[in-house]
């Protein structure tokens, strides 16, 4: 069972100090050629694995992996080959990559079982579908629903 996630934001001095990292072996999820492929055996062989996921552009994520002292001490892991991304919102996606949300869902599916992956991907797909709809329909249905009775009668 996945415990409460901890989100650590770098570069914002206004944020509260970072929460401590939970005890357990550290795994850094990043698609480096030298990374070890993540497997369910890893979660069975250790107690309470801690998954660290840098989020940002590729150059930002790579810098986080090199500069963050916690990330530097983690075992770098990558996802096994899997289905193509369902993101569809990014224009120049790299071949063979997935969005951060998809990567986290797949990683947790490997470490904690398919139920969590399925729930996360269902929510992700709803987000993508709605975003694509708004993008292709200019938000018109949403605007029509927000008109008051006075606005709709004055246009007739």
Structural overview:
The protein has a domain at 26-117. Helices cover 45% and strands 8% of the residues. The chain is built from 7 helices and 4 strands. The protein has helices at 40-45, 58-67, 69-72, 100-112, 114-137, 140-146, 149-154; strands at 26-29, 36-37, 50-52, 75-78.
Give the SSE layout.
Layout: E1 26-29, E2 36-37, H1 40-45, E3 50-52, H2 58-67, H3 69-72, E4 75-78, H4 100-112, H5 114-137, H6 140-146, H7 149-154
Parallel strand pairs: 1-3, 1-4, 2-4
What features would you highlight for this structure?
single chain; 4-stranded parallel β-sheet; 4 strands
Structural class, from secondary structure content? alpha/beta
Shape estimate: globular
E-strand count = 4
> How would you write the strand order of the largest sheet?
2-4-1-3
Measured by DSSP, the beta-strand proportion falls in 5-15%
Name the helix and strand elements from N-terminus to C-terminus, one letter apiece. EEHEHHEHHHH
Largest sheet descriptor: 4 strands, parallel
Give the oligomeric state.
single chain
Instruction: Show unreliable segments.
Output: none
Give the distance, in angstroms, between the N- and C-terminal Cα atoms. 57 Å
Put simply, the count of helices is: 7
Mean pLDDT: 80
* Proportion of residues in helical segments: 40-55%
Gyration radius over CA: 20 Å
Write a brief caption for the model:
The chain is an alpha/beta fold.
């Amino acid at each position: 069972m996945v415990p409460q996630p901890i989100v650590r934001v770098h570069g914002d001095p206004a944020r509260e100090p970072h929460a401590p990292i939970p005890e357990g072996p550290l795994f850094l999820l990043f698609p480096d050629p030298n990374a070890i492929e993540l497997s369910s055996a890893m979660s069975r062989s250790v107690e309470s694995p801690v998954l660290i996921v840098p989020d940002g552009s590729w150059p930002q994520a790579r810098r986080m992996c090199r500069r963050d002292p916690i990330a530097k001490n983690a075992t770098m892991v990558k996802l096994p080959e899997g289905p193509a991304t369902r993101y569809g919102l990014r224009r120049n996606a790299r071949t063979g990559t997935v969005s951060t949300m998809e990567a986290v869902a797949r990683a947790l599916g490997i470490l904690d079982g398919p139920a969590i992956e399925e729930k996360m991907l269902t929510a992700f797909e709803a987000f993508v579908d709605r975003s694509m709809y708004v993008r292709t329909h200019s938000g018109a249905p949403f605007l029509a629903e927000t008109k008051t009775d006075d606005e709709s009668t004055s246009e007739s």
